[in-house]
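pipeline: protein-struct stage 2 | run 1193 | Zinc finger CHCC-type domain-containing protein
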Amino acid sequence: MSEASTTPATAPKATVEVTAQDLQGPGVVFCPNPKMPLWSNHPRVFIDLSHTGQGACPYCGTLYKLKAGEVLPAGH
């Protein structure tokens, strides 16, 4: 009997719930975020949450989503 192993490809990705105060622009967050450890840094990418309320980092797969009940501020 073999045990199921978790490899990086099948490991669950992190999910980060963000509030309107965490946004870096109108509906945008960046990854890596300030809470991530230095060793896991990759080039900074901006992730747009304004359409669906969530988005994933193309480098590390971290899912960013608006916290339940959060409303994006009105655009400029």
